[in-house]
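Lab channel / #folding
Pinned by the channel admin:
"Please post every new chain as: sequence first, then the structure tokens as a reply. Keep commentary short and put observations after the output so the thread stays searchable."

First post following the new format, from NK:
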Amino acid sequence: MRAFDLSPLYRASVGFDQIADLMDRALTNDSGQNSYPPYNIEKMADDSYRISLAVAGFSDADLSVEVRNNALIIAAKKAPETDAKTYLHRGIATRAFERRFQLADHVRVSGASHVDGMLHIDLVREVPEALKPRQIEIQTEPQVKPQVIDAAE
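Reply from TO:
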């Protein structure tokens, strides 16, 4: 994979730190990134999204959902089992994890639910009224009518 140097972007711009950081994170070879737990990202409506994580074996008390610096951080830590169990096969992973999702501007978490081993996190994009496009009415006549002043002779 090619390595891109984004330092000229930092030197020649002001206020684009988040975009540069996002590009830097996306372009770095993050081979340490594991795929646990598996997740889906769904688009529910034009401005509504849902992230679903498969968290079988975790209770509500084991899970943590937090928003910090435009990042959604989902973490889980299983409490140690007090009773010793003997497993013939253990295929349900309950190891601790932390999964991060970078949130765009004006995206907020509207809720979270844990049902049937799935953690669902609902997101909503709320664009401020000032940033929404607006239609400008085109007038056929000028707004200000010229005043004609007759010169008295």
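NK: The domain at 34-82+91-127 is CATH 2.60.40.790 (Immunoglobulin-like).
TO: also worth noting, Strands lie at 39-45, 48-54, 63-68, 71-76, 97-102, 107-115, 118-125.
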